[in-house]
Amino acid sequence: SSDGFLSRIKPTDSADEAYSEGIVREKLAGAMRYIKRNSVARSREGERARRDVLVTHLGGIAKSGTQYARMFCQENKLLVNNAVSPRIAAERLLSNGEQFSALVAVDDVFGTGQSVVDGLKQLNDKAGETIRTLQIPVFLVGICGFRRAIDFINRAIAELGLPAEVYVSDALTDEDKLFDSDGAIFETHQNRMRAREIAEAKGRMLEKKWPLGYGDCEAGIVFFANCPNNSLPILYKSDKDWRPLFARV
User: Fold this and answer.
1) What is the model's pLDDT at position 185?
2) In the prediction, which pLDDT does 5 show?
């Protein structure tokens, strides 16, 4: 916490964001409003929970992905049993795809986009033909995400020819990286470079390959359930000499 570095990790509309459960639920509700405007509902009158939206996750930690998928259903009055793993989602599409008006894949943050693209390719291999034949819209929902990651995912969507689109509540740019020269977190260049040296030196001891976060994202993003690995390792990773503020579970 030298030079007040950690004191600057605070809730803002940037990559130094603290997402409470309440904020996450608000953003998931906003995503559903967008999906309703861009899909045709197949719900039946009198249903207490919509059954026509299938919810899963692509990439990220499986446990966290499942948690966000279930939360998406709870917040938007969807059948909770429709929150499933990518494998089961593909199986349901193959067996009963005509009953679904949309497939939603929920994730916390699109950091590099690689894990989402990998998951999207697996989905395409298993159920892509069904999705295209039935024209089931696929929505990739992120609480936040870097524009580079979003562009990367969109290129993969185009290459695969899937009827899919990306919805991100908070879009981030390089300026949202903690140590970007055009960022507004540090008052002076000297303070920024000093903080970066501290974060990188200790980060290298915690995570040799990515001392400033996976993909060099330099993020300070913290979610109520976990801290993504795109954030600085000093925020979430432990060793015998380091106890992080937001230990990853």
Assistant:
1) 85
2) 40
> Comparing 55-59, 126-130, 134-138, 218-222, which segment has the lowest mean pLDDT?
55-59
**Residue 98 token pair:** 């005509």
Pairing of strands 164-172, 138-146: parallel
Query: How far is Cα 69 from Cα 39, in angstroms, rounded to an integer?
Result: 19
Reduced to 3 states (helix: H, G, I; strand: E, B; else coil), residue 49 is coil
> How far, in Å, are 6, 123, 234 from residue 192 at the CA level?
12, 42, 16
- 213 within 8 A of 101, measured Cβ to Cβ: no
Cα–Cα distance, 199 to 179 (Å, whole number): 10
pLDDT score of 11:
40
What pLDDT band is residue 211 in, cutting at 50, 70 and 90?
A: very high
Residue length, the chain? Answer: 249
The neighbouring-strand residues paired with 142 are 107, 168
Q: What is the dihedral of CA 47, 49, 51, 54, to 10 degrees?
A: 170
Q: What is the pLDDT of residues 33-90, one digit of tens each?
A: 999 999 888 766 667 789 999 999 987 555 677 889 999 999 999 999 999 999 999 9
CB distance 120 to 51 below 8 Å: no
183-186: long-range contacts (C-beta < 8 A, 24 or more apart)? 183/14, 184/14, 185/8, 185/14, 185/16, 186/8
Note the pTM of the prediction, 2 decimals: 0.88
Nearest to 220 by CA among 20, 6, 4: 6
